[in-house]
Design brief:
- This protein has 101 residues and is of the alpha+beta class.
- Helix content is 24%, strand content 25%.
- A three-stranded antiparallel beta sheet has the order 1-2-3.
- It is elongated, with a radius of gyration of 19 Å.
Length: 101
Amino acid sequence: LLGGAVCLGKRNNCETRTAPYIEGRAYVGVSATLPEDNFFLAMVSELTFGGIIDLVADYVPGLGGVAIPPKLAESGVYPFAQDYKTRCAGLLGGYRNETTL
C-alpha cells in the first residue's frame, strides 16, 4: 500500500478546510500474488474554476476581483451531496427507485 495527500493553499485554509484550497489524496495497492487485490483510489476536494482563480489570487497580486461569468466560476468537480438522489433524479431516465443509484 502506498498513498499520500497534498493540499494547495494557505496553511490555515488547508487546516480548517476553508476556501480557497484544493486537497487531493491518492492510494495504490499492488499484489504480485493476488491481482484481484490491486487497486488505485484518487480523491479531490471540491474543485471549481472560480475556486482555482481565488486560490491563485492569494499569491498573484492584482488577480483578485477578476470578473468571471457565474456559470464558468461554478463549473468544476463537486462531491456527492447527502441529497444526491433528489438532486440527480432528473438524470436517471425516469427511474426513481433505490436500485438506480
